[in-house]
Amino acid sequence: MPANARTQETQSVDLADRLRERIQSSGLADGELFMTESELAEEYGVSRTVAREAVGRLAAIGLLEGRKSKGLVVRRPDPLRLLELGLPSLIDSQRDLSELAMLRYVLEMGAVEPAVRNGTDDQIRRLCELANEMEEVIRDGESKQTAEIDIAFHSVLLGMTGSTLVAGMQRVLVRFFASSREVVPNEATDNRVIWEHQELAAAIRDRDANQARAMLHLQAREWLSSPKSEER
User: Fold this and answer.
1) For residue 60, what is the domain's CATH number?
2) Domain end point (choices 74, 104, 122)
3) What is the pLDDT along the chain (232 residues), one digit of tens a residue?
């Protein structure tokens, strides 16, 4: 990379950091006007190109949005959307997949205690219903519906923590692992999947955090293993 290009990139990165700090400390609400690109370049003493690149970096994470004939407005970034969009490009190796699998594992195991403590009767009832629905679709050989119910099951479980962010992160991760894994069903492993989900639902229903963690640990064997084609 030519020296002038490196200098320009360094300037845009530095400016993006300074702008992010300014936005975060300004108290500007979502949708409020920040400034125009030309005003930004003038105030910080940089070229329009550097200003444009810095704005582009912040727009990429959802912090700024350009409005025609208005300028730049502040936005509240959606971390779940960023995670969902960024996951495919973050995965370059088996090690990357293993790191994501560990993130999912730690997230779910850490969520058991607040889920058991805070889950409502309606949420517990729904969890048990989904475990039963999973048995029905597995017996009917509906693999696509099985994946959808699994996502719903874990979303309810994580939703019981009371944290929208925790539940949303898990939903994104479960979807990612479901789409990255080709699974060949067989009777023995189908029975195991049914049993694990029903036992996990029962443990949550009984407010038994230790048993719930034990069942989650058993379930984690699937997505902590290699995501290559395998039996379910």
Assistant:
1) 1.10.10.10
2) 74
3) 455 555 778 899 999 999 999 998 988 888 999 999 999 999 999 999 999 999 999 998 889 999 887 899 999 887 777 777 777 776 767 787 788 888 888 888 998 999 999 999 999 999 999 999 999 999 888 877 888 898 889 889 988 998 888 878 777 777 777 665 555 568 888 899 999 999 999 999 999 999 999 999 998 887 776 444 343 3
Q: Which residues pair with 231 in a beta bridge?
A: 184
CA atoms of 37 and 203, how far apart (whole Å): 56
Q: How many residues are there in the chain?
A: 232
Print the domain residue range for 153: 81-231
The answer on 57 and 122 residing in a single domain is no
DSSP string, 4-19: HHHHHHHHHHHHHHHH
- What does the alpha-carbon distance between residue 89 and residue 87 come to, in Å, rounded to a whole number? 6
Token match 């069942």: residue?
Answer: 215
